Amino acid sequence: ALGDELTTIHDFSPFTGALRTSILEFDWQPAAMPQGNQQLWILKTLSNIARDLKNVRGEKNLLWIGGFARDGSISAEPGGRSGRGGSRPVGGAPAPEYYQDMARVMQQLAEARVMFYPIQPSMVKPFELDDFAELTGGKVYWEDKDLAGLMRGAIDDSREGYMLTYVPANYQNDGSAHEVKLRIEKKGIELRYRPAYVADSPAK
Predict the structure, then answer these.
(1) DSSP for 11-64?
(2) What is the pLDDT of residues 45-70, one digit of tens each?
(3) What secondary structure does DSSP assign to 142-186, as a single string?
(4) Range 172-181, long-range pairs (CB < 8 A, 24+ positions)
(5) How confident is the model at residue 36 (pLDDT cuts 50, 70, 90)?
(6) CA 53, CA 131: separation in Å to the nearest integer?
(7) Taking a C-beta distance cutoff of 8 angstroms, is the pair 101, 110 a contact?
(8) pLDDT surpassing 50 at residue 90
(9) Which of 63, 78, 94, 152 is the most exposed place for a label (fewest CB within 10 A)?
(10) Cβ contacts of residue 138 below 8 Å, gap of 6+?
């Protein structure tokens, strides 16, 4: 839960019923973001989550509830200032650097094997959150004001899947990024997966 600080509502557990109960019983309110550079604040929090979860084995799912403006973009500082000294109206499109930074953080989550599920209880389409979620294999849930229903959708979506493993030809530990594409012959099937991976860095 992201408010003035990051709060653990429930520790890691394979029991989705316990997780769902803990979240629904939590007194959730839209995040009261601190004054200052709110873009960097949320990006830093996501980066810290990726860092911490990287050491936890297996696939993880991150349900991100709220923490965004009505249009889904990260709120600007008071006075319309955005991160890195740029300016924009509050609630408008984020600064261009935001996309680069958010893509970098999504890459960190993907490397930590975390699927990002932004949940926005609103009828207003979240701004670009769907694109960012797809970078991790996750999905944004928004087209409803029923928080419990949106959470159920995200949990149900992450409950089942396939794990495919392969060894790329001429694999090298050079820290380089590689695109991944999956295809299926059957019609009417939507594939969602991490569209890229980063090779291990050279040993120091």
Answers:
(1) ---S-HHHHHHHHHHS------PPSS-HHHHHHHHHHHHHHHHTTS-S-EEEEE
(2) 899 899 988 888 888 889 888 666 44
(3) EE-S-HHHHHHHHHHHHH---------TT---S--EEE-----SS
(4) 172/199, 173/199, 173/200, 173/201, 173/202, 173/203, 174/199, 174/201, 174/202, 175/199, 175/200, 175/201, 175/202, 177/107
(5) low
(6) 22
(7) no
(8) no
(9) 78
(10) 61, 62, 115, 116, 117, 118, 158, 192
d(CA 28, CA 198): 36
Structure-token match 């294999």, residue found: 137
Give residue 25's identity as a one-letter amino acid code: E
For residues 1 and 14, give the distance between their C-alpha atoms in angstroms, rounded to a whole number: 19
The position carrying tokens 């999956």 is 182
Consecutive H or E run containing 84: none
| Spatial separation of the C-alpha atoms in residues 107 and 194, rounded to whole Å | 9
Structure-token pair, residue 198 = 């980063």
